[in-house]
Amino acid sequence: MDTIKTALDSNSNEYQENYKASLERREELYQLRSEARQGGSEKARKLHKERGQMTVRERIHALIDPGSPFFEISELAGLHMYDGVPPGGSMVTGVGRVKGRNCMIIANDPTVKGGTLFGITCKKHVRAQTIARRYRLPCITMVQSGGAFLPDVANIFPDIGHGGTIMRNQVLMSAEGTAQIALVHGPSTAGGAYIPALCDEAVIIREQGAMFLGSPELVFAATGEVVGQEELGGAEMHCSVSGVTDHIAEDDAHALAITRNVVENLGSLPKMRWDVAQPAEPLYPMEEIYGIISHDPKLPTDNREILARLLDGSEFHEFKAMYGDTLICGFGRIKGFSIGILMNNGVLFSESASKAAHFIDLCCKRDIPILFSADINGFMVGREAEESGIAKHGAKMITAMASAKVPRISLITGGSYGAGYLAMCGRPFEPDFMFMWPNARAAIMGPDQAATTLSLVQEKIHQREGTTWPDDERETYKGQIRKIYEDFSNAYNFASHIWCDNVIDPLETRDVIAMSLDLAGRVPSEPTTFGVFRQ
Ligand code: COA
Asked: Which range marks the domain in which residue 524 is found?
């Protein structure tokens, strides 16, 4: 391995300006996270506590092994999406260690609209299941939910990816031997009742947990039968009469202790398939990344300086350093895990794209996971580029990236646009995980390009129809398009729609990648079969 040399001047004005902008963005990220972690309204939280129940995050922390991290996923889902609903979409999902085993935890937050499911909550639940299924992580579902948030029915009920998919995934995972465990913490109606019913093992809390397909009110409306919650679906009834649940608990803490016992009996722990070296810190302080990320999206970032602050010992073995140098390729380690890195260093040319295909092939042959670190305006355009076969070489890169069966992690550290976003393993190519830094942006093109393109289209229409388009109207129009694109491309918009798994502080990057690889390395490798490479 070679040590990446640094040429960073931390006294320069540019460094200071970049650092200041990064700190402001970090502040915003932690503010949004704290809103998400608070949960529902003060009134709802107070009521919840008065009922003697733990909050959703207290439950998670009591479940996982003391001192172990909780790797939260889709934390800012639903941000600014529904009135009066904090980021998170009434659910917390993430990976936590229970009795030494990585488990996927999926927990309703009953303080947010009674823990009901919005469209984005379904998407979040399904995303957590997708990760669990890929890595064979037992799912521990903490249920306290009124089922569907009824006004959002169109996004919850009819289609693939909605509530029914949650149930289907439970069945498929159970069949594959991925354990499904539920805790019924509170009243759980309709879909909320099917989730525990479809689990392998279910725990319910006396005089708090209850589950029924129709609530007492609904039963009265439908049949005229008058029945209380406890008789209809309480813990005592389900554990001793219906047999719908398997273990009775006296309170939240007891239910969580029983769940830890259930996890203890899931068989042998999955083994890591790679040799993981002793982790080493980068040679240069990670904090300096704040001063490297360009504060102005129009000015490039020196990504090699970033790489030097992500890798163990800042050590890197570069591949084809003198060829296609707008894409840095090479091997290094992150917290001991060996990883192949493709990192943008300018636009993609034919040479850089074909180098990418070659490098991805190497990673697949060696079963080394890949990090796609994206900061890319796109592929080179123009006559020279077309004559060099850029479409063919780009297709080769996409074929290699899309076929690769080794774990693929995408990280967007700057702007990621157009086919560049896709070729750098954008979300449609289903990377194992996709993370964005707070400054990251992604769209089909940049705001200025979109504004110019659309104003040229309008210009032509005016010419064709013989009408005039005053300059001030054109500028207003362009400003509106720019704003739409700026809002769209924002990392938080991606996080809100679950187009990425999380917005992360650059200083969390090494931890998050290592946690992802710790999951990916505990399932067997799969052979890669590439699609046809156009030569
Ligand atoms: N759809 C939309 N909103 C719902 C809802 C639903 N299914 N269930 C509850 N809410 C809302 C309430 O209107 C209330 O909104 P607010 O905060 O704006 O006032 C909030 O969720 C909390 O409800 P509340 O009844 O005050 O809380 P609770 O903790 O006492 O009870 C439930 C929670 C879920 C047990 C209870 O609200 C309930 O039984 N809801 C109906 C469940 C149902 O029949 N679902 C069928 C789905 S198919």
From this structure: 273-437+504-535
